[in-house]
Amino acid sequence: MKKLLLLSFLIPLNFLAQTLSTVQEQSLHYQNYTFSKDTQWDSLNTVENGTVYQLKESQSKASTTCTLNKKVYGWHPYWVGSVYTNYDWTMLSDFCYFDYSVSPTTGTNTNTSFAWGTSAAVTAALSNSVNVHFCATLFASHSTFWASSTAQQTFITNAINLLNSRPGSDGINIDFEGMGASDKAPFTAFMTNLCNQVHAANPNYKVSIALYAVDWSGTFDMAALNSIVDDFIIMGYDYYYSGSAQAGPEAPLYNFQTGYNQTLSKSITYYLKQGASKSKLLLGLPWYGREWETLASTAPSNTTGGFTSSRLYNYVKSNSATYSAANKHWENNSFNPYYSYVTGSSTRQCWIDDIYSYGRKFDMVNQRGIAGIGIWALGYDDGYSDLWQLIKDKFSDCSTVACTDSIFDMGGPTRNYYDAESYTYSIAPTGASKVQLSFSQMDLEQGYDSLYLYDGSTTASPVLGAFTGSVIPGTITSSGPVMTVKFKSDNATNKGGFKAIWTCIQDATAPTTQINAPSGWITQDFTTTYTDLDNSGGSGIEKSFYQPSYYNGIEWRANGNRGFFNDDFNGPAIHPDWTSSAGTWSISSGALIQSDETNSNTNIYAAVTQSLSNRYLYCLR
């Protein structure tokens, strides 16, 4: 291809050189449900104090070359309106339209607002080439549904017809909540029948299940379901809910209180141990938090049983006077921020993630090697682009890794790790030449739980250290830019685990270039050899740039057909490579001069062949 080298001026200009380089609580689904151990809440609505959120800050619409390397599965509630126009479709792999409300007696849809066939949001998702699904929900009377094979078959037939009615559709998400142990066998039988028929109708159709954050009753037969279901999305929220006696994080990375240790990391470990494939398991995260009236401003604090409300991400961002830096606190056990403030005579705490805590949750998804994340719900960040940017930073080929950060076992900085954990991940800071890991804690069950470090990107790399027990290993340094961590715990006895800080060592030594050419004056064509070396031992150089020029008898030129451009402006006239689009141009004393001050769009340009990716080299003198 050709690039146009364009010079444009508004005033006379002599130049010698220029380098160009190239987003009142009113639950719509769950307000009639009371929390129990067998109920999974999402406790979310779309309205705060009766106000529908409008765009407050432009979303990033810029074209991007970043490509997702994890699944990002977002539920789009039917009630959020036109907020889909602000989704960053490039950072969304799967769009799920919510919801087909299953009648337990007939299997038909009871939600009159379900507009799958005409939804502009579904149309937009299809046109943006993301995978498009719809969600089917059933929150009560499960036994009635299991007792009716007709209702089940009606739903399955309707589901397949709905997918067929929207060419390009991809699948169905099953969100059956409030089930218990007695539902395990009939649910597995239903899912087997559903998956078999859906896959037979179209092998490309996918079936996914929304899993409870905590499967208190062992409802899901993961070993059986894993062989037929395409994806599982943990609903990783409402660990602390509206009826909680204590205020706490919606989605704790690590356990907040020792008496209640249900966390995101434990949920992942549980479902993997039960038989879910890493490649099928996603971690759903809330784009919202929760606020309670509390007895105290500090954490932990009991709730009063009075005010409580969900708080959407954009609500908190848009009310910075209340949710201010002065009112913001960090809770280190759970690795979660919260806001504490006084209104009237009452104290309130709002627990909601920020970019850093979301980023640590995203990091855990990468560390555990699972398939990606789910978002409940798309649009709850409308007006702000920072969560889309975070997805790009963590889950795309444009991601970067900080030069220094902390790592812990899955119990976090203060709590024990869990039984039956097994994970491997690599630490590869952007721009690093070496990785240094400095430990401040090592507390593993001697002989049963272990931590291995490898000098490279896989467990096939040389072992840097193998640890068990309580001896702190100090500082360990890799020989290259990547260090790999492998941890494994058995099925009993867990301890405090490990804590460390990684630091990258960056290469400050410049590469060298050696040019071998004949000496003296050469009057015929000759060959010159360029040798690039880096102190790492290999070439270590991704791209090299050279600009050989030649003398054509009048002036020194470079070969524009080879991707180079050079003009010393030493000739008697402007070279024919240049096209004067407007204005008056001339050469004087080795400089290009533009002297037409009356023309509002004076420019001169030259074409340069560029066909080598992003390599550009222009030199004007």
Task: Characterize the structure shown.
With 621 residues, this protein is α/β, with parallel strands linked by helices. It has 3 domains: 2-20 and 511-620, no CATH class; 71-288 and 354-395, Glycosidases (TIM Barrel, Alpha-Beta Barrel), CATH 3.20.20; 409-506, Jelly Rolls, CATH 2.60.120.290. Helices cover 15% and strands 31% of the residues. It has 9 helices and 33 strands. An 8-stranded parallel β-barrel has the order 3-4-5-6-7-8-9-15, surrounded by 4 helices. Strands 11-10-14-13-12 form a 5-stranded antiparallel sheet. β8 (231-235), α6 and β9 (281-286) form a beta-alpha-beta unit. The longest helix is centred in the N-terminal third of the chain and has 18 residues, at 184-201. It is globular. The relative contact order is 0.12. The model is unreliable at 1-63 (pLDDT under 50).
Topology:
Elements: E1 2-9, E2 13-15, E3 71-77, E4 94-101, H1 120-127, E5 131-138, H2 142-147, H3 149-165, E6 171-176, H4 184-201, E7 206-211, H5 222-225, E8 231-235, H6 264-274, E9 281-286, E10 288-294, E11 303-312, H7 313-318, E12 328-331, E13 336-343, E14 346-351, H8 355-368, E15 372-376, H9 386-395, E16 404-408, E17 422-427, E18 432-443, E19 450-454, E20 463-467, E21 475-477, E22 483-488, E23 497-506, E24 512-516, E25 529-533, E26 550-551, E27 556-557, E28 564-567, E29 578-582, E30 585-588, E31 591-594, E32 602-609, E33 617-620
Parallel strand pairs: 3-4, 3-15, 4-5, 5-6, 6-7, 7-8, 8-9, 9-15, 28-33
Antiparallel strand pairs: 1-32, 2-31, 10-11, 10-14, 12-13, 13-14, 16-23, 17-22, 18-21, 18-23, 19-20, 19-22, 24-25, 26-27, 29-32, 30-31
